[in-house]
Write the structure tokens for this entry.
Amino acid sequence: MSRKSLRRSAPLLALLLAPLPALAAAGDGGGTWLDLRYRHERVDQSGFERDAVADTLRVRVGARSAAWHGWSALVEADAVLALDGSRHNDTRNGRRGYPVVADPAGAGINQALLRHATATTTATLGRQRINLDNQRFVGGSAWRQNEQTFDGVYLQLAASPRLALDYAWIGGFDTVFGPSDSPASTRANPSDSGGDSHLLRAALELAPQAKLVAYHYRVELDDMAVTATAPLGTLDSRTSGLRLEGRRGPWSYAAEYARQRELAGNPWRLDSRYALAELGYAFDGGLVLKAGLESLGGGQGEGNRAFQTPLATRHAFQGWADVFLTTPAQGVDDRYAGVAAPLAGGSLQAWYHDFVPERGGGRYGRELDLSWAHPVPGVKGLAGLLKLARYRSDDAAWTVDTAKVWLQLQYSY
């Protein structure tokens, strides 16, 4: 945890942790957990003479109190250890001769919260994980070793059996680049950012397997910019949208549209669009096919004014090679197709992406992603993962060839 984040959070953490021993002793329902995740990641990227090789271990421990008159508390801490002598650029160690593997070493508080729950409402105060819908706009980015969490208040209301309302105020935002900054940090990848963000969401069940979601997200990040050289405040935005998703027999579908504008205080004028259309089909036996088009619009004017999603779980979208974590100034259209299927006691995924600019014509490149996950026999709670991503650029002026391989073991107790 950075000094800035610690100063901001220390009074709140003290308030939250104080009642934990008493709550944990009051009745049943509390618990503790341990999660260990070892990962080997190798990155081969054009423009670098050496491949990045990162071996990291994340250790996470947590405790949740029993509920007492609807009240409960939770605290979770984690540490990321570098095991390989830092043969990679972790965004903090200054090793710019290697490609980036954004898993800096360090330790901090991942979650520390106080929660009150009734049959229809839940209120959560403190540092917490917030995942909304498919996490395209707000999520924990759990793929990286250091998870993305939020300091604030999150309210959930079941207004009726078919209508759910969510509101979150976020005063602090801990990124995957934490827990601390260094001279190698930039305004595009700080460990944390203060702010005054408001997230409002309403989900209406139209049918047993169909849901319509309306949202308005006002994102203000004091200490961040869209790129390392852009002015602070250029990620401050207001995004309004609608999402429809559901199933009908073996078919699944999702359609979404959103518009993003600047917030007051952003030195740049923003006006860009987001659109998604996806269709899937599930066969007997577990085989699932999906195809879709996702578009993040480009912006007009100097600098990168494209549609951005800084609070999202971005690794899950637009390819696992993470070429488009920041939307390019010309925007990006991602035409994709994939399959998920059971294989040899595990689960296989394969995805193909074709990327083009949303504005201006031309081509970015293509990507193939593969993964296979399997429980390790004989060890309860231990699972293995093999994952590959290969991006091939069609225009070196915009993107470069990138290949990544991951080997992972994760134990959860």
